[in-house]
Amino acid sequence: MSGEVVFAGFGGQGILLAGRVLAQAAVTEEKNVTFFPSYGGEIRGGTANCTVIVSDKRIDSPVTSRPEAAVVFNNPSLDKYEAAIAPEGLLLVNSSMVNRNTERTDLRVIYLPANDMAHELGDERVVNMIMLGGYAQTCGAVSLDSLKQALLKFFGEKRASIIEMNERALDAGASASS
Amino acid sequence: MESELVSGNEALGYGAITAGCKYYFGYPITPQNEVPEFMSREMPKAGGIFVQAESEVAAINMIYGAACAGKRALITSSSTGISLMQEGISALAAAQLPCVVVNVMREGPGGGGIGPSQLDYLQATKGGGHGGYIKMVLAPSTVQEIFDLMQTSFYLADKYRLVILMLTDAILGQMLEPIEMKRIPEGDLPPKDWATTGHKNQREPRMIPILLKGYTPINYFQAYQDEAAELNSLLQKEELRFEETTTEDAEYLLVAYGSTARIARSAIEQARGEGIKVGMMRPITLFPFPYQRTKELVSAAGKTLVVEASGGQMIEDVRLAAEGQGDISFYGKVGTVFTPIDIYDEIVKLAS
Amino acid sequence: MEAAAKTKVFGKPDTLTGVPYYYCPGCGHSLIHRLVCEVIDEFGMAGDTVAIFGVGCSCVSYPFFNLDWIYTLHGRAPAVATGFKRSMPDTLVFTYQGDGDLGSIGIAEIIHAAHRGEKFTTIFVNNANYGMTGGQMAPTTLEGQITTTTPEGRDPAHCGSPLKISEMLATIDGAKYVARQSVHDYKSLVATRKSIKKAFEVQLAGEGFSIVEILSQCPTNWKIEPVDSCAWIEENMMPVFPLGILKDESGG
């Protein structure tokens, strides 16, 4: 499986971490991957985004103007990426933060109330993993198991409770999307 | 070998440590802060030294000190900081001290901005500092290539007693890619019988710059120029590196380097899919520039498009290479990142 | 007459090559070179010493020393010494810098080398002007002193007053030994030699940064006779730049 996805939202929503965990999971599966964070002009206005491309082939450009998927965490990100998604692509929306539906009719769209779900899980910080779990489940670019393995790389074995919470968030996002 | 997911900036550090570099001197500047942060953590583990200098001016002179001792030393910075180092780079070149300098290019003249660009090509390849010296300039386009070329850079620096400047940019520095960290075997190197490490009462005292010895001020700088010219010819013969993409039957030729080249490759794939016979020359050594091969490719293609994240700098070398032949135009963009579609659209224009 | 047994009572130190100095008549550099070399001889360390010279009159001094020798850019000797000493911790390293090189263009490098407690020694020659370039104003030029860029004399109203660099460096934790000496008479030569020795000892013990400022004659640019230049130091420089050990935290 391959996939091109943009994660976009406010700085502080864990956008870049979601992208990095996805990229690390792809490495675990011995796939080619590039992760490119928002940079320079794009970072202004308080938005953060990153592009992750997973492929079995060599990846040339780490950026794309027509991503196959977008995972948006707030209104400005929906406004910015809605039109850019490739035809019949995938859109995941954090409906806790986004107050409108997409106008695109060709897309596969999943609305996840990720902030509310995170609140129920008991940790507001795992919004990003809920959305990532939803993306992985829907797109299949990497497996949930690989994502969980990737968490170890970022949090280390000592922080078992944090890892467990993030694993639960991945699972919650995945099951709400299937 | 297992792949590790690392950023281009971290790959600079991993490559240097793998090449046996134990001395890194740095000063914070975006977008290369990951390098001093990485080195402050990893250098001590590798038995090396990290010093956060008080300025880029001091940092480049610390490299000078370590290089005088015959040690492999690295410095990284970004555009503005590299400008501050130019006097030092000139001095390193004058003293024929091997070392590796990396410019993770940011945008604009003056203080500039932190966005990506390729605006320092001319500074890198045509001098930068004063006084007529040469150095090698290498331009990787993937994180793996950064890691590999970093090792090669140390080898070339020692082989030719040259300053090696690696040009990357904010895109390559910030992006993550999995890489394999293999040690690249090196060829034989000449002994560093010029290093000023103390004479141990066993030899004549040495001085750096060593070339001053045996010359008078009257013939020294002419001799330096003669030597630089000779070395330039040798590098043209021995050390050219470039990569061609579908040039065999290309009617349209792109010339691009670094991050721009890898984005252009996606555009080329799309255009090829639609029957447009487009290829690319990607110089990896920007100095020495692959003039001869570029000339052949420009002559063979109907039209050539030079693509750079600048207002047009490498195009000067492409025109020099072409010696008046071919139909050469330019496409550039600064501040925002090229997407494959941008370049694809230009290829379509070229072909219509 | 009985053949007298000849005993050598005075000669040049081995660390000096004996190449005749080509400094101006009455210049203090040759005295300072000699004192540094005497101390290196005393330590028996010529084979493990590296001299790092800044830009100034002394940057053409390499033929005088039986030492490995590095020439640096203007003001940057402390940065070069940092890079060198960090990679060669067992060598005895000294920078040799004038007041323009160290006190003006290289002030950041000397402050931060002291600040990091770099384990090398600086020999700082203060002759109150830029000697090599023909006698322009230095940060250490005295108030009212005529130089080629203060033709009416240094006016503190717009040129500032003499910068007391050693006093400034003595405030820095990483600087473990800071002294100001002179080479204008025999007594001062003895004191200077002692300070150089102490500064090298601080370095060799790995205690931190050490510096010896040395007031030095420049009769050519001061436009006075060599003999008068010695008195000039005592009468004009020493009131502004008092001699002595400004800081000694060695052995602590």
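Residues 217-238 of chain B form the longest helix (22 residues).
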